Amino acid sequence: MTKIARAYTNIALIKYWGKKDKTYKIPYTDSLSLTLDRFYTDTKSEVINSDKDVVFLNNQELDDSKSLRIRNYLDTVRKMYSFDEHFQINSTNHVPTSAGFASSASGFAALAASINSTMNLDLSKKSLSILARNGSGSASRSIFGGFVQWHAGTNNDTSFAEPIDESPDIGIVLLSVVISKAEKSISSTTGMESSVKTSPFYSNWSTLVASELVEFKQAIANKDLQKIGEISEHNAMSMHALTLSANPPYTYFAPETIQILNIIKKLRNNGILAYATIDAGPNVKIICSKESVQKVKDFIEANITGISTVEAHIGRGIEYI
Amino acid sequence: MTKIARAYTNIALIKYWGKKDKTYKIPYTDSLSLTLDRFYTDTKSEVINSDKDVVFLNNQELDDSKSLRIRNYLDTVRKMYSFDEHFQINSTNHVPTSAGFASSASGFAALAASINSTMNLDLSKKSLSILARNGSGSASRSIFGGFVQWHAGTNNDTSFAEPIDESPDIGIVLLSVVISKAEKSISSTTGMESSVKTSPFYSNWSTLVASELVEFKQAIANKDLQKIGEISEHNAMSMHALTLSANPPYTYFAPETIQILNIIKKLRNNGILAYATIDAGPNVKIICSKESVQKVKDFIEANITGISTVEAHIGRGIEYI
Predict the structure, then answer these.
(1) What are the DSSP calls for B212-275, one per residue?
(2) Dihedral sign, CA of A130, A135, A138, A141?
(3) C-beta atoms of B259 and A257 within 8 A
(4) What secondary structure does DSSP assign to B106-146, as a single string?
(5) Angle A195-A196-A197 (CA atoms, 0-180°, nearest 5)?
(6) Which of B183, B241, B262 is opposite residue A244, by nearest beta carbon?
(7) What is the DSSP letter of A200?
(8) Which pLDDT tens digit goes with each residue over B123-160?
(9) 3-state secondary structure of A133
(10) Distance between CA A3 and CA B94 in Å, rounded?
(11) Min Cα separation B301/chain A (Å)
């Protein structure tokens, strides 16, 4: 019987920003993420007697243009593992776009795991991470739970994620603050490319990431949530500095992004643990502690109208149900 | 008879961000500015029979704490030119803080020129620029009109401004957009220090400035206003990238800053010449052409309520009236 593969999404706390190799999605630097329990994708793959894959997302068949990225990915998988079968893919996304998370991380991790299961490839988690990365860079990290490091590597065999601590007892809570009236922004792929090619500061990004990774792993070992917050916020803002210094300059920040950053500073001034991280979009995710999260939530909802928050905790790695 | 010295303020289009020497205000890099006709300071200095300077600003005597920076500066001036006289300073500021400009550039330029006149020092403009710089770095540029370059230099004798083109026929208009509900921000001195010490990207700032200076001067020579706008916007955003990447990160942007940056992009998409520059505060100054300025003004006032704009053109250097 075909199993369902479940993969949770993850949030990068040391960001992935810049591809050294676009085909294999090899990044310029390592990155470090937290897998989240709240948002996941369930995927089932069944072999069909056809030379074309069929993809259903949330019970709706995708048309050719919408399924293209997935079908191309399946071609890659077939090539990597030398088989010819085609599939009917049924994928259900529990990553509401309204929560401000991309679903590509959980989506491609679940798809990779599902093919692994259906084709009895019996892949190691390392190989599964490599396979997922070929679909979407950040998917390589969603194979594992908790804190995860994606090693940049130099080619398709050496670029994969590994867990740092799959169930850290550190009380971290991630609060996603969803900005409704967001301006349409440029894709992360386009954004990365622009930073790499045109930011005068990009050459220092890898040195920064390398030193913040060391500090971050020490902070995990020390269960030092404040330090984790500090590094995460600095790393995220430095990534956004690479968009502001691109030529032409651009920013993913919306007016409300600045409002929320100001609120986070106020909360910290009042002794409440709250640090920001922001991906390639206007939404702010706040790193909180079990103790601070309700206060942060209340303060934001009291101070900005029309803003909702979604709480997430540490999530597990790939599961087969 | 004692003359009034008049100095106009200036806006840096290649920014000054970082002091190599705090005492003499020697910057890490050159900078390039446009002197503006709209905002200026008138200053008169009279020798008084006292061992303490007296300072009037806008017809009001400043108390000891408020006049301290000016009295300290006058001590520096006395030391530099070996005289003992003290002064009654009467200064009138036509730089409304509501227009989003700092008055220290025109203020210290006018004060330096005024002492030069009263004491018959007969200083060259180069020496006057050095003298003004000792009060406020950006004041070194307000000695001249039009486009001005401040050479960073390495010590008190070699750090001074020079005109590039005092009356360029280039049709540049600067529109200051004043954001009312601005959050209180950190001073530029504190901000610079933080960027220099903690931004992982600061080491690339001087290379960037050097190359953008060359391009900018070529654009002046070519009367290429669009190119001037592009370089100015990129340079300003890169300066703000140095605040975002400081540790801890900070930003001078207010929510309305982002709103206006979005509007400027929309204007450009409609073929209207408009480029942003932003100093150490939330206000946006827009580089326009004679043809575009009214459209830019109308569009902003139609799209954001409670926002006013002030228009300025190319200003002259120091004048004695």
Answers:
(1) HHHHHHHHHHTT-HHHHHHHHHHHHHHHHHHHHTSSS------HHHHHHHHHHHHHHHTT--EE
(2) negative
(3) no
(4) HHHHHHHHHHHHHTT----HHHHHHHHHTT-GGGGGGGS-S
(5) 95
(6) B241
(7) T
(8) 999 999 999 999 999 999 999 999 999 999 999 999 99
(9) helix
(10) 75
(11) 18
Does residue A88 belong to the interface with chain B, where contact is any CB pair within 8 Å? no
Q: With CB atoms and an 8 Å threshold, state whether A204 touches B201.
A: yes
What is the full per-residue pLDDT of chain A (321 aa) written as tens digits? 689 999 999 999 999 999 999 999 999 999 999 999 999 999 999 999 999 999 999 999 999 999 999 999 999 999 999 999 999 999 999 987 666 677 899 999 999 999 999 999 999 999 999 999 999 999 999 999 999 999 999 999 999 999 999 999 999 999 999 886 555 678 899 999 999 999 999 999 999 999 999 999 999 999 999 999 999 999 999 999 999 999 999 999 999 999 999 999 999 999 999 999 999 999 999 999 999 999 999 999 889 888 889 999 999 999 999
Query: Closest by alpha carbon to A134, among A52, A40, A23, A35?
Result: A23
Residue with tokens 């020697």: B26
Are B51 and B87 in contact by the 8 Å Cβ rule? The answer is no
Residue contact A240–B240, C-beta within 8 A: no
B271: contact with A, CB 8 A cutoff? no
The verdict on a CB contact (< 8 Å) between A237 and B230 is no
H/E stretch holding A108 reads helix A104-118
Give A 209-248 residues with CB within 8 A of chain B: 230, 233-234, 237-238, 240-242, 244-245, 247-248
Here the ipTM equals 0.94
Cβ-defined contacts of A288-291 (< 8 Å, 24+): A288/A172, A288/A173, A288/A174, A288/A175, A289/A171, A289/A172, A289/A173, A289/A225, A290/A171, A290/A173, A291/A171
Query: ∠B62-B63-B68 over CA atoms, to 5°?
Result: 85
Q: Using CB atoms within 10 A of its CB, is residue A166 exposed (0-12), middle (13-18) or buried (19+)?
A: middle
Q: Of the candidates B200, B208, B257, which has its C-beta nearest A200's C-beta?
A: B208
Tell me, yes or no, if B307 comes closer than 8 A to chain A by beta carbon.
no
Which chain B residue has its CA at the smallest distance from A257's CA?
Answer: B255
Cα–Cα distance between B293 and A194 in angstroms, integer? 30
**Token couple for A175:** 């609060």
Q: Return the residue in B199, B244, B278 with the most chain A beta carbons within 10 A, the one to mutate for interface testing.
A: B244
CB-CB contact of B94 with B39 (8 Å): yes
**Domain B5-168 identical in fold to domain B172-312:** no
User: Closest Cα partner for B86 from B39, B54, B132?
Assistant: B54
A172-312 domain in CATH 3.30.70.890?
Answer: yes
Q: Which of B179, B251, B305 to mutate to test the interface with A (most CBs of A within 10 A)?
A: B251
Residue of A200, A233, A258 lying closest to B238 (CB–CB): A200
Question: Where in chain B are the domains?
Answer: 5-168, 172-312
CATH number belonging to domain A5-168: 3.30.230.10
Preceding amide of B27 cis, omega within 30: no
